[in-house]
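Key result, reporting period 2: structure in, sequence out.
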């Protein structure tokens, strides 16, 4: 297997959570959300290292979590930037020279199945691999396009629509190139794949799980706890 690095951006504040604490540090079944996320990468035999990206001022707390929960794959913590784009960019600066493939995964997605992580890594590491791959699920609802006054302008064909998740996995050189180009062009995008797509690369969809939710609102914590209970987590 190739040398795999996980980059975990965990610097977002999450205004929709309406909490003073970073959403990554909210408690979920007795552990911070971020700890659940890191445990997935710690347990994956394909992942050699994990670069954690934390908000300025929260690095020491993250170091305490790493020590408390015995994580062994996190050689360094990088400081986050003004937005997700700059946080991931800083994370890329921290990966080892030996790294060949990078898996970027939101710190606030604690319900990723390890089997899905391994599946997407294998897809990118294969001999006939695309330029990258992302976990995604088909859109269930009808999607409307609206104008600035929220008047419907059209109905999108949902048979062609997928909801992007993380991890998003790419060869290191491709992801670094895409970020450099976006930085030069002052383009930000909404996920890593959008930068790679814009650079003219092929990104493959790997079907994921609807349970791989991102903790964004208070209701998400309750839902995540129910999912973990159904999985037998105590």
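The corresponding designed sequence is given below.
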């Amino acid at each position: 297997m190739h040398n795999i690095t996980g980059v975990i951006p965990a610097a977002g504040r999450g205004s929709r959570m309406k909490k003073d604490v970073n959403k990554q540090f909210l408690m979920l079944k007795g552990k911070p959300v971020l700890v659940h996320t890191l445990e997935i990468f710690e347990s994956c035999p394909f992942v050699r290292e994990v670069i954690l990206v934390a908000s300025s001022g929260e690095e020491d707390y993250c170091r305490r979590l790493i020590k408390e929960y015995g994580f062994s794959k996190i050689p360094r913590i990088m400081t986050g930037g003004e937005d997700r784009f700059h946080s991931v960019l800083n994370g890329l600066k921290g990966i080892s020279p030996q790294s060949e493939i990078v898996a970027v995964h939101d710190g606030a997605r604690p319900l990723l199945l390890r089997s899905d992580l391994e599946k997407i890594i294998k897809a990118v590491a294969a001999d006939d691999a695309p330029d990258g791959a992302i976990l995604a699920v088909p859109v269930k609802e009808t999607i409307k396009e609206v104008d600035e006054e929220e008047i419907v302008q059209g109905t999108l064909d949902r048979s062609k629509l997928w909801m992007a998740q993380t991890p998003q996995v790419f060869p290191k050189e491709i992801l670094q190139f895409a970020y450099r180009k976006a930085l030069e062009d002052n383009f930000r995008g909404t996920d890593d794949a959008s930068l790679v797509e814009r650079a003219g690369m092929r990104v493959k969809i790997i079907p994921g799980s609807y349970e791989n939710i991102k903790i964004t609102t208070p209701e998400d914590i309750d839902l995540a706890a129910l999912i973990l209970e159904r999985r037998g987590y105590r």
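The helical segments are 33-43, 59-68, 84-93, 114-125, 172-185, 192-198, 218-230. The first strand starts at residue 4 and ends at 10. This case is discussed further under Risks and Mitigation.
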